[in-house]
Amino acid sequence: MTNKYPINGVCFFENAREHMEANDFPRIPIGTIGGIYGWYLTMRQEIVDGVTYYLPFIFIDPIKPKVKCRWYLRNLKNDGSWGRAVEGRRYLRPHRGCLGRGKRLDGYLRNGGITVEYGFEIEAILFRE
Question: Domains of the chain (ranges plus CATH)?
Answer without folding.
Answer: 2-126 (2.60.210.10)
